[in-house]
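Hey L., structure's done. Input below.
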Amino acid sequence: MDNQGGALQLLKVPETRQRILVTLGLLLAYRLGFQVPIPGMNPAFLKEAAQGLSQSWFGLMNAFSGGDIGRTSVFSLGIMPYISASIIFSMLAKVSPKIEAIAKEGASGQKRINQWTRLIAVPIALVQAAFVYTGVFLQNTEMIAESIGPGLALLAVVTLSLTAGAMFCMWIGELITEYGIGNGASLIIMAGICTDIPPALAQMIGGPDFYDTVVYLVGLWLTIVVVIVYITKGTRRIPIQYARLTRGRRVYGGQRHYLPLKINMAGVMPIVFASIVFVLPSVLFAAFKLRWLESVFNDRQGFVHIMSQVTLIFAFCFFWNRLMFQPDQIANDLRERGSFIPGIRPGQKTAEFLDHTLTRITVVGAAFLAVLSVLPGFVTASTPLSPAMAYFLGGTSVLIVVGVAMDIVDKLNAQLVMRNYEGFMGPGGNGGGAGWTTKK
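Output:
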C-alpha cells in the first residue's frame, strides 16, 4: 500500500478522524486568540519594535514561545511559561530523590507532577509578562495608548492579560495531548513557527532575483531537513546481553538487546538555555547605554557572538546529557538485572564505557546544534531575508518542525499498523512511535 492509500485508510478510522479534527479545531482556536488585543496597547508601534528585536535574541525566544510577542495579543507569551515549568521539573526529577520517586509511581505520580507544573507555570508567566512589559513596552513608550500611559495600572493589565492568555494556551495544549494527535505543546510551537512563513514569503514576491532566491531557499531547506532527519534518527546502539540461567534441561535468558543512545540526545534544550542566557547581556548593555558592547555582542556574524553561542551550547549539551543519562545508575541497573555489555566488565568498567560513549556522542550532537544556532546569521547575510524567514531556515525552527512532524507520522503509522494496515512506511515499516490510548 502506498502513502496515499495509507492516508485514506487513516481517514476511514472514526477515532483517528475525530482526533485529527479536534487537533485542527484547537489549533484554529489558538490562532484566533491572537486577534484578542491587550487593552491600552498600540499594535502598530509594538510590531515595529518586535521586528527590530528580531535582529538579536527576540526571534529565537519568539519561536520557542509558540506565540508572537510582537503582537499586542493576550496570547503573546504562548506556551513558553508551561515549557519553562516542564523543563524545571524535568531537571528536578533527576536531582531530587523525592520528586524522582513520585515520577516513578506511574500514572498517579505523573498526574501529581503535571499538576505541580501547571501551578509553577503561573508565577513563571507573571515574571515573563513583567519582563515583556519592562523590556519591550517601557523601552518604546510610543506603543502605549495615550489614554492609559505607563504605570502600575498598565503593568497590572499587561501581566494579568498575558498570564491569562498563557494559561489558556496551556489548557489548549493539554486538550490536544489528551484528545488530539501528538504533543500539544510541541504542536503549538510548530504552529507559531509556521504561521510566520506565509507573510515572509509574501514580502519576497516581486523583490530582486526572486526566482533565484526561491531556488536557493528550497535547496537550503531540503538540505537542512535531510541532515536534521539523519541526525535525529541516528543512534549509537550498545549491545546488552542477558545472563543465561540453566534449570535442568532448560536455559533461560541469554537474549541480546540494545541500548540506543541518540546522537542528538538533548534535542533543542541547549539552544533554549543558551537563548535565555543570551538575553541577559543584551538587556544589561541596553540598560547601561553600552551601545558599542551591545552591537558587538549582537553581531550575528561577529566572532564574539558566534563563540559565545557555541560555547554556551556545548556547555548546556554536556549539562543536559549528564543530567538525563547517568552512566553510574545505568551500570548499576544492568548489574542488578543480570545484564552486561559484551566485552565490558559489569560495574565500574561499564560505567566508564558508557561515560566515554556519552562524551563522544555529546560532542557530535553539540556540534550539530551549534551549526544550527549560528546558521541564521549567515543565511541573513548571504540572502536578503526577513528575520522570520531567516530563523525558519536557520535550522533551529526546522529542527522543531521536523521533530514534531516525525512524531505525528510515527503515531499515525503506529495506529495504521495496529489496525492491520501497512502504514505510511510500506511493508515492514517501523514508525518507532507509540499510538494513543483510547479513554474508557
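The radius of gyration is 24 Å. Confidence is low (pLDDT under 50) at residues 52-57, 428-435.

-- N.
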